[in-house]
Amino acid sequence: MTAGSDSVLGLLPRVFAAPNDALAEAEQVLGADPPPLHASVAHQVIGIWQRDFGDLRIALHHLRRARDLAARADSPEREADVLATLGVALVHAGRTRQGLAAFERGVRRGTGHTRARVLYRRAYAWWVLGHHPQALEDVRRAIPVLRQADDVIWTARALTLRATVHLALGAVDRADADFTAAERLWDTTGQEHDKADAVESRGLAAFRSGDIPAALRLLDEAEARYAELGTPTFMLNIRRCEVLMAAGLAPEALAEADGAIAVLDGIGGQSTRKAELLLVAARAARLAGDPHTAIARAALAVRLFAAQRRGWWGAHARLVLIEARAAAGRSSGRLVADAAAVAEQLAAFGAPAAPEASLLAGRIALGLGWTADAERHLAVAARSRHSGPPLARVTGWAAQALRARAAGSRRGVLEACRRGLDVLDDHRMTLGASELRARATEQGAELAALAQEASRSRGGPRRLLVWSERWRATVLSAPPTRPPADPALLTSLTAFRTIAARAEEARMEARPVPALEREQRRLEREIRSRTLHMRGDAPGGGDRFDVDRLLARLGGTQLVELAVLDGRVHVLLCGQGRVRRFEAGPLAAAETEAEHVQAALRRLAHPGAEHRLPVVEAMGRRLEELLLGRAAARLGPGPVVVVPPARLHRVPWALLPSLRERVLSVSPSAGSWLRAHGTEPPPGGRHVLVRGPGLASGGAEVPDLADRYGRPTVLEHDETRVPRVLEELDGAVLAHIAAHGTFRADAPLFSSLRMADGPLIVHDFERLDRSPYRIILSSCDTARLASVGADELLGLVTALLPLGTAGVVASSAPVNDAAVVPLMLALHKGLSAGLSLAEALRDARRALPDDATHQATGWAFTAFGAA
Predict the structure, then answer these.
(1) Angle at Cα 386 formed by Cα 398 and Cα 215, nearest 5°?
(2) Long-range contacts of 368-375, Cβ-Cβ distance < 8 Å, separation of 24 or more
(3) Could you give the 3-state DSSP secondary structure of residue 558?
(4) One matching Pfam family, short form (predicted)?
(5) Which residues of 276-289 are buried (b: 16+ CB within 10 A; e: fewer)?
């Protein structure tokens, strides 16, 4: 690198075009004994690199050296420019007063174009500090001068900053206009880091406008660009955490924030960024149900923001701290006053979070019985229900519902809940990924609970049924968005299967697998990331539930819907033209008993546990008392459909005495049962039998079933490769899959069936045009599901139901492979005779040998849907 003036001065824009190259060249300049002016530039370049990508203490050393050298060179313009860079670094280091003093001196020393650049950087510092009016004023003064000087790079930076400030104030349209103008300018430059920042900023704008899939896609694109440049991404981490939390992925957000904090601490990075990361970590911990971690993170953030003189940020941190303390049960009059004070602060700052603080103050006041104070705060929060992004409007409707409840207006509660859930329906259906749709329902849990409570008190059983259905299993209310014909996604799925199969083979041979597991996790992240980018294309929130339609379709069948109110199970018994309500036992006790039953069934799957059979039957009697109560004696003689809440999905319903000899099916909601009941089988009547590798029984039922069905499609050995299996399953009237099932509690959409070339996962099934009309999964754990969101389930069964499958038979527990064979043969005998899945499964259980292993196997299988 030569030390000519033009080449040395050209290093400054290169810091954000090719950061690492600029750093190396600046170090070369300093090694050539340059004059003070050139040395000042080189030290400034190193200072900028260290400030944004490295150690802040090293950055301050170089920037002070650059300032002193500029003064020695008697260059006021050079000194002003360095002072602005130093000011930003001091603010990021938490030395706010010194940083603002450096800016003030820089504004005085610079003129014209240089002063405009100083003003831009001071505007950035004001934004970091949360002083938005001052930021807008400085950038307003800078932009015309930068444009007049035809300074494309700095004009684009100033427009991006102004857009970001507009977003902080909730002015999304103004932000969009500035981001668009900035991006047009960036396209004419080689500033790769700034271009990545522009993509990141567009992601933030998409999030603020409520488009979560677009936000995730843009933030992932920005991350890839930063990775090519080898630069850290702390601001992107913060923004992605915000999007993940809005999508209901709080645990992932907490992990990302904590990971970024560890990296930042490791390099001695910016104190301001650490405070912001602590704030998002606190919010994520609170949303993830960990108030104690939230309190610890938020308290530290409050202290850092106070030391940094960042009032806007500090108010947000105090809001999270108060929310976490309330969630930990620390409600008090002081907490109401603190929440009200934070609400006033946020409103004064023009922060969109102000209604959340008012809602919090009102909610705490209601809990203390302070109705007058609650009304005052809730009325303020309720103003947000008519405008703003979806989640802000939901906050307003929640406040309105609480106001109506306090005033004793049942009608007002139900109207507010209806309006709020309608907003969430529209928002939810913009999400293409079934996982995001499921997790987004958590935002409406309070509204659904308030409506159920109001319905129970005065609305009667029919209204309670309507509200029990309103926010249950919403993922099944409309078909999922088909994954795009994305070659990269298909490549990742193929690679994932290959790596997963190699890892499984290595485990069986006791060979090391850490490297394979790391690659498998990487591919899982890539697949999940691409599917989360999908935008929903289904209008509205699906069909509205109609009680009269349900009662007409039931005929002689009784539908038992279990609702949970105040921690107790309420049975809504639907049939014979009416809905009756019965109160049963505590939900927590039923969950505990169901887990004990699952453990007992696992033991009965192996010989030698026969003495446990009476114990398991006794557990079934206790479960019946807890889950059905007096309703068990009112079921009548006909078929029964059970609709449990998500938290009870692991109950083996056939074990309950009153259900043991019945035609019994289970459905995630009454609405999904209606849709399954109305689903017509596809033309053609194709039967597909799949025998996967590694089964202890060898899938012994499959050859017999092939003889039963005449000329079915039989896939076994190498033919059970995922692409071929999917091709044959698409549009079949019946599919029987004998393959090892694996449930992934950590990632339910990666639950799988083992095929010859690796796992067949939920994401694969979602690519079918139409899943089989009836599907039988004869192996362990294929009916296990993950409870997420308000009352949603994710797993193999729930992936199939919206795709055209009307009925599924699957197991919710480990089973004895040998005992499965006679059960499956008897099941298909009934189907061949024209029975439904539920009828055939009832008869198949009756036909099993009367020993503990076979009985447990029969109880473990459940018929889902209505086919």
Answers:
(1) 85
(2) 368/331, 368/332, 368/333, 368/336, 370/333, 370/336, 371/406, 373/336, 374/402, 374/406, 375/403, 375/406, 375/407
(3) strand
(4) CHAT
(5) bbbbbbbbbbbbbe
- Give the whole-angstrom CA distance, residue 761 versus residue 728: 16
Q: In the structure encoding, which two tokens stand for residue 778, read together? A: 């004869």
CB-hemisphere CA count at 13 Å for 727? 9
- Phi, psi torsion values for 559, nearest 5 degrees: -105, 125
Separation between Cα atoms, residue 649 and residue 812, nearest integer Å: 9
Three-state secondary-structure class, residue 583: strand
The pTM of this model reads 0.76
CA atoms of 157 and 184, how far apart (whole Å): 12
Chain mean position to CA 579? 35
* Spatial separation of the C-alpha atoms in residues 475 and 129, rounded to whole Å: 41
Q: Which residue carries 């400034």 as its tokens?
A: 44
β pairing state of 861-865 and 807-811: antiparallel
In 93-130, which residue ranges form alpha helices assigned H by DSSP?
96-109, 112-129
DSSP 647-660: GGTT--GGGSTTTT
- The dihedral formed by the CA atoms of 51, 57, 59 and 65, expressed in degrees to the nearest 10: 160
Tell me which residue of 348, 288, 286 sits closest to 321, measured CA to CA: 286
* 748 within 8 A of 794, measured Cβ to Cβ: yes
Determine the Cα–Cα distance for residues 290 and 298; give it in Å rounded to an integer.
Answer: 12
Say if residues 79 and 109 touch (Cβ distance below 8 Å).
yes
Nearest Cα to Cα of residue 469 among 663, 673, 624: 673
CA distances to 363, 559, 584, 624, 831 from 638, rounded to whole Å, are: 46, 10, 22, 18, 19
C-alpha triplet 417, 422, 425: angle, nearest 5°: 125
- Give the pLDDT score at 193: 84
- Region label for 248, one of left (φ > 0), alpha (ψ between -120 and 50) or beta (otherwise): left
CA 332 from centre of chain: 32
Cβ within 8 Å of residue 691, ≥6 positions away: 698, 699, 702, 714, 715, 716, 720, 738, 739
SS (H, E, C) 484-515: CCCHHHHHHHHHHHHHHHHHHHHHHCCCCCHH
Please give the C-alpha separations between residue 142 and each of 132, 249, 368, 472, in angstroms, as whole numbers. 15, 40, 51, 53
* Chain mean position to CA 732: 33
DSSP result, 375-434: HHHHHHHHGGGGSSSHHHHHHHHHHHHHHHHHTT-HHHHHHHHHHHHHHHHHHHTTB-SH
Q: What is the pLDDT of residue 1?
A: 39
> What average pLDDT does the chain have?
88
Neighbours of 74 (CB within 10 A): 10
Q: Any long-range contacts for 238-243 (C-beta under 8 Å, 24+ apart)?
A: 238/273, 238/276, 238/277, 238/280, 239/200, 239/203, 239/204, 239/207, 240/216, 241/280, 241/281, 241/283, 241/284, 242/207, 242/280, 243/203, 243/207, 243/212, 243/215, 243/216, 243/219
Beta carbons within 8 Å of 504's beta carbon, 6+ residues apart: 754
Instruction: Find the mean pLDDT for residues 160-167.
Output: 91
Q: How many CA atoms lie within 13 A of 175 on its CB side?
A: 21
Does residue 561 contact residue 468 with C-beta atoms inside 8 Å?
Answer: yes
Residues of the chain with pLDDT > 70, as a percent, come to: 95
Strand-pair partners of 666: 642, 864
